Amino acid sequence: LKLAPLKSNTEPYPLYLPLDSLKSELTLKQQEALKLAYKMGYYELPRSVFLENLAKEMNIKRRTYEEHLRKAEKKIMSYLVPSLML
């Protein structure tokens, strides 16, 4: 069981979230889309890559790639945000 620290300005100690349970909720396509987006700089400011390029890299349509990525992001947010509200 892997645990990831979640730092908070209001908590004196970091909270730890089990990463295995989060990873198991993501499909393989969602995991691939997230890893590729991160690796290629999609989350950098300014972005160094756009959805069209990422979709081409995975050899799928832009809309399909976007769907994989957005669903993965939604699952991650639904996992993390409630923990931040503790």
Present the secondary structure layout.
Layout: E1 3-6, E2 15-18, H1 19-25, H2 28-40, H3 51-58, H4 62-84
Antiparallel strand pairs: 1-2
Describe the fold and architecture.
The protein is mainly alpha-helical. It is built from four helices and two strands, in the order ββαααα. Strands 1-2 form a two-stranded antiparallel sheet. It is globular and about 40 Å long. The two termini are 22 Å apart.
The helix/strand series, from N terminus to C terminus, equals EEHHHH
Unreliable residue runs: none
Span between termini: 22 Å
Percentage of residues assigned to helices = 55-70%
Strand content: 5-15%
- On the 0-100 scale, what is the average pLDDT? 84
| Order of strands across the main sheet | 1-2
Overall geometric form: globular
Strand elements, count: 2
Biggest sheet descriptor: 2 strands, antiparallel
Give the C-alpha Rg.
15 Å
Q: DSSP helix count?
A: 4
Structural class category? mainly alpha
Summary?
With 86 residues, the chain is mainly alpha-helical. It has four helices and two strands, in the order ββαααα. A hairpin with an 8-residue loop joins strand 1 (3-6) and strand 2.
What labels describe this entry?
single chain, 86 residues, mainly alpha, 2 strands
